[in-house]
Design goal:
Layout (H helix, E strand, L loop, with lengths): L3 H4 L3 E4 L6 H14 L3 E5 L4 H9 L3 E4 L4 H55 L11 E8 L7 E7 L4 E9 L3 H14 L3 E2 L6 E2 L2 H14 L8 E9 L4 E7 L5 E3 L6 E3 L17 E5 L5 E5 L23 H9 L6 H14 L10 E8 L8
Parallel strand pairs: 1-2, 2-3
Antiparallel strand pairs: 4-15, 5-6, 6-9, 7-8, 9-10, 10-13, 11-12, 11-14, 14-15
Helix pairs in contact: 4-5, 7-8
């Protein structure tokens, strides 16, 4: 059955001086629920009640309004009612659409959280116990999932591995790419006494070939840096694939070395060669591996729009200062976290941020 509001009728009510409040509220609720056009004639003694009814959308006229005034008001209400009904129907459709959108957003959020959990499963749940070296991590995805991935692994009694990769792009595609990379990096061949630690350059060579052979025609590119530390002599061997060069902050804090092994992007050229370099790091030194998200983590003062996301070299000073004179590993991590928190735009960082801080604790003699 169609309501009076759908039929174009207008309800006219007259309030008595002694009208119960319950009746007034019932009339107001009925008008609000049905969008029924209505005119209420209110005596002077019920001015406050008239104000209440007017707030609920009813047309309030004085008790002694003329018939002509009532008729003109009723005609105006009836004329506009078709528009009110149409707006009501459109609002219902919009509300249903919004409800559906909220449902899809909730589903998408759940899927993104699941994807983030799966991605984190491909990274260390905690830092493993390593001989001769301590490691700290700064890991800040820009969204639920990250295009960055890192790994820290104990290879044998003396050697440890450190790895960071950054898939080109953002969001789920980049995150899926990082999981492919994590599964494709071979650090050790074989098991037991015959196990062989794969040199960093060879590990990236094999990873690159695996990516190019199984790309399926898609553009799966990534940068990476991979290092192996040997606690017997304090040497770290590092290979890179188009990745920002790691830094070595020496004990005095005044000397900062860039480690820049040559190597192309992963997933571009099959059988590409990757160079590696070896460096000795002493207790008090700090090796820092990081992703290119740091290039946009510290925007220039006053920058806006596209300039806000323009890369700067400020991050080099921030990283070096974090590992400055007398800084322990926890101190360095805390200092860097604070700098990131204070940077402009830190609540909505434009790119994923990952850093590994590697601090040697001393040379361990090889067992006889």
């Amino acid at each position: 059955m169609r309501s009076p509001s759908d039929r174009g009728g207008v309800c006219v009510a007259v309030l008595a001086i002694d009208e119960p409040d319950a009746t007034v509220y019932q009339l107001a609720d009925r008008a609000q629920e049905s969008l029924m056009p209505g005119i209420v004639l209110v005596p002077p003694e019920l001015t406050r009640t008239g104000t209440l009814l007017a707030a609920e959308g009813l047309m309030v006229l004085p008790w002694d309004a003329s018939g002509e005034q009532i008729a003109c008001t009723a005609r105006a209400l009836a004329t506009r009612q078709s528009l009110v009904v149409r707006l009501r129907d459109e609002l219902k459709i919009a509300q249903l659409s919004v409800k559906g959108a909220y449902g899809e957003m909730a589903k998408l959020q759940e899927e993104m959280q699941t994807a983030a959990s799966i991605q984190r499963a491909h990274m260390p749940k905690k830092i493993p116990e390593l001989n001769g070296v301590d490691v700290g991590v700064v890991y800040r995805p820009a969204t639920y999932v990250s295009g960055d991935i890192y790994d820290i692994a104990r290879l044998d009694e003396h050697r440890s591995a450190f790895f960071i990769a950054d898939a080109v792009g953002h969001g789920v595609p980049a995150a899926l790419m990082t999981m492919i990379i994590a599964c494709g990096l071979h650090k050790v061949d074989g098991v037991g006494p015959d196990a062989r630690v794969v040199p960093p350059a060879e590990a990236l060579y094999r990873l690159n070939n695996a990516m190019t052979q199984h790309s399926g025609g898609s553009s799966r590119f990534a940068t990476a840096v991979y290092g192996v530390f040997d606690a017997r002599n304090g040497e770290v061997t590092i290979a890179g694939a188009g990745h920002p060069p790691p830094l070595i902050v020496r004990q005095n804090g005044q000397s900062v070395e860039r480690v820049d092994p040559e190597g192309p992007l992963l997933g571009v050229f099959p059988d590409a060669d990757f160079g590696q370099t070896t460096h000795r790091i002493e207790p008090g030194d700090l090796l820092i591996l990081f992703s290119d998200g740091f290039e946009v983590a510290f925007p220039a003062a006053g920058s806006e729009g596209d300039d806000f996301k323009r890369p700067t070299l400020t991050y080099l000073d921030k990283l070096a200062q974090a590992g400055g004179p007398g800084a322990s590993l926890p101190d360095a991590l805390t200092a860097l976290e604070m700098e990131l928190d204070m940077a402009s735009g830190s609540l909505h960082q434009p790119d994923d941020i990952t850093a590994l801080f590697v601090a040697p604790t001393g040379v361990i003699a090889e067992a006889a």
